[in-house]
């Protein structure tokens, strides 16, 4: 049993017509019929009653369809969770700085303003000094970042 068989079964149950289901699924009607027949063989029960060109779920088919809908619902939820985790992992800011204690202050301010973006210092430096360097810096802007002057230029705000 595979997901395509379950998808075919679900579509045939929804449309009530194998030819229409085959058109929607872009498969031939004989291939769709064979796939559903293999599914019924694997389950050991018929799922449909055939009536004048239509297919109608029998009791077993209705019960199985309920389970198939649950499977696809869980699969969809799982896919959304994985995609959301991936998207969140792509919003990660990694920074390094040679001034002890400076970067944690900046990252903390940035994280308050942009909680949707993860931020962490790159490893390799000594732990931050106990004294905060925030008092030595110009005030942070609305984005949580502090303006920095290029080397040799007068300090920002001076």
Provide a descriptive summary of the structure in words:
This protein is mainly α. 50% of the residues lie in helices and 10% in strands. A hairpin with a 2-residue loop joins strand 1 and strand 2 (54-57). Helix 1 packs across helix 2 and helix 1 crosses helix 3. It is rod-shaped. The protein starts with a helix and ends in a 37-residue tail after the last strand.
Task: Describe the protein's topology.
Elements: H1 3-15, H2 18-25, H3 29-43, E1 48-51, E2 54-57, H4 59-89, E3 92-95, H5 102-113, E4 118-121
Parallel strand pairs: 3-4
Antiparallel strand pairs: 1-2
Helix pairs in contact: 1-2, 1-3, 1-4, 2-3
Give the low-pLDDT segments: none
Which strand order spans the largest sheet, edge to edge or round the barrel?
1-2
Sketch the major β-sheet.
2 strands, antiparallel
Mean pLDDT: 82
Total number of beta strands: 4
Distance between the termini: 73 Å
What is Rg?
30 Å
SS-derived structural category: mainly alpha
Order of helices and strands: HHHEEHEHE
Counting DSSP H or I runs of 4 or more residues, the number of helices is 5
Percent of sequence in beta strands = 5-15%
Note the quaternary state here. single chain
């Amino acid at each position: 049993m595979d997901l395509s068989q379950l998808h075919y079964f679900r579509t045939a149950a929804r449309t009530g017509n194998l030819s229409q289901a085959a058109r929607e699924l872009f498969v031939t009607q004989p291939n769709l019929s064979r796939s559903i027949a293999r599914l019924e063989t694997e389950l050991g029960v018929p799922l449909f009653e055939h009536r004048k060109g239509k297919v109608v779920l029998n009791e077993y088919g209705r019960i199985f369809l309920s389970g198939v809908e649950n499977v696809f619902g869980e699969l969809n939820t799982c896919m959304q969770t994985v995609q959301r985790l991936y998207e969140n992992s792509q919003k990660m800011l990694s920074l390094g700085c040679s001034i002890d204690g400076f970067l944690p202050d900046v990252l903390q301010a940035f994280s308050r303003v942009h909680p949707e973006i993860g931020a962490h210092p790159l490893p390799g430096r000594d732990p931050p000094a106990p004294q905060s360097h925030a008092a030595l810096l110009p005030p942070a802007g609305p984005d949580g970042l502090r303006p920095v002057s290029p080397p040799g230029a007068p300090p920002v705000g001076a």
